Amino acid sequence: MDIGIDKIGFYVPKDYIDIVELAKARNVDPDKFTIGIGQDKQAVPQPYQDAVTMAASSADSILTSEDKKDIGLLIVGTESSVDESKSSAAFLMDLLELPEDIRAFEIKQACYGATAGLQSAYDFVSLNPDKKALVIATDIARYGIKTPGEVTQGAGSVAMIISKDPRVLKLDHKSVYMTRNVGDFWRPTFSKTAFARGKFSNQVYVDFFQTLWQKFQNKYSMTADDFSTMLFHIPYTKMGTKALRTLEETVSDTKYAELTKHYQESIKFSREVGNLYTGSLYLGLLSYLVYGAQPNEQLLLFSYGSGAVGELYSAKVQPDFEQVVDKSALQKMLTNRQKLSISNYEKMYQIEYQDGTIVDPITVDTKFYLSEIKENERLYKKSK
Ligand code: COA
């Protein structure tokens, strides 16, 4: 039975900052941010948006009432959770008007969460072929104002429906994975911003890619010639480039040129959005589906979550994917955004809702929003 991604949707907040303006405000050469880090814009969420509201928006963009009846599993992968106990998935039941015979939970392993969700969904559909699974990656990447990581922030969500006979991407069930206890990135429960040993994280990421690529080739007797495209976890686009470059000496010039061209197509969205944490790999997939993918093309996907877990797996683009992926709607979502000045972004960054906050719906311009914090419980609403 073929199993994989049947639909894929994306949500990005409407506000963004320009990375050249950020560089100037921080007295940094703009080339460092646009070339050295590889970013152009960075999505900025409103204070009434969080991992739950963005997850609702990305899922809402793909779910039909027919899908809702068929879903038996809902997994939210996030490292920006709003509650230490209740899962984001439980909040989504009302916002998305889902029937209650669903197994719903949240999963956390840094940027690997969505891949963990995707592979669990594969298993679920294998056992329940008439059911579908909804897997959502949703995150707000925050390092803090004027920190080295500030340029690698971002926000957004990617939602995927996993089913049999998928129309977007068939998972081949060829996968290798590994876990090591590594201190490259962490966010203690008291902190809204992440702590990172950024350069060390780069080294671990590249090491995981090389180790897994070797394992994959040994396990399946395959080489780079079996793939036309490799998609990487891209918290910022330079990071994937570092992994890709390790192949330069080991593959033919033609293959490396092909992989590089396709990699450039896969990072177009990320350059405009920034870091989605667990959604980053899947934003790369979406970008590639919009700008480069060909029917029946064989892809290799590298997922990495600090701490650290890595997985390398293969998948095949399905013949009719263009009928399911609404390319112009995705591009419009990015072009229809509004630019925030750096000073307004800094002001917005400081806003933190406390218990007792009631959000005036008139000030809200998103479909799903945090409406109130009452007795320390977050309450959400869908705009009429
Ligand atoms: N023009 C072009 N490139 C420039 C430049 C200029 N004027 N100035 C610097 N650069 C390049 C550097 O050579 C470097 O490239 P390299 O990585 O290929 O060596 C890059 O820009 C970054 O410079 P660096 O001095 O390393 O930047 P930094 O000390 O500010 O740190 C990060 C950058 C990415 C490590 C930091 O932003 C960070 O910690 N981010 C968070 C880490 C993260 O997201 N981890 C994810 C875990 S999955």
How would you sum up this structure, described in words?
- This protein is of the alpha/beta class and 384 residues long.
- The protein has a single domain (3-382), classed as Thiolase/Chalcone synthase (Peroxisomal Thiolase, Chain A, domain 1).
- 36% of the residues lie in helices and 26% in strands.
- It contains 14 helices and 16 strands.
- The chain has helices at 19-25, 30-37, 51-60, 65-70, 88-95, 113-127, 198-220, 237-245, 253-266, 268-273, 280-291, 321-324, 327-335, 342-350; strands at residues 3-11, 15-18, 41-44, 71-77, 103-107, 132-141, 154-164, 169-179, 185-186, 195-196, 229-232, 298-305, 309-317, 338-339, 368-374, 377-382.
- A nine-stranded mixed beta sheet has the order 5-4-6-7-1-8-13-12-11, with helices on both faces. It has a three-stranded mixed beta sheet with strand order 3-2-14.
- The relative contact order is 0.19.
- The mean pLDDT is 97.
- Residues 29, 31-32, 35-37, 111, 148-149, 151-152, 185, 196, 198-199, 201, 235, 238, 304, 306 line the site of coenzyme A.
Q: What is the residue-averaged pLDDT?
A: 97
Total count of strands: 16
**Proportion of residues in β-strands:** 25-35%
Taking the alpha carbons of the first and last residues, their distance comes to 41 Å
Kindly provide the name of the CATH class: Alpha Beta
CATH fold naming: Peroxisomal Thiolase, Chain A, domain 1
Q: Based on the coordinates given, report the CATH architecture.
A: 3-Layer(aba) Sandwich
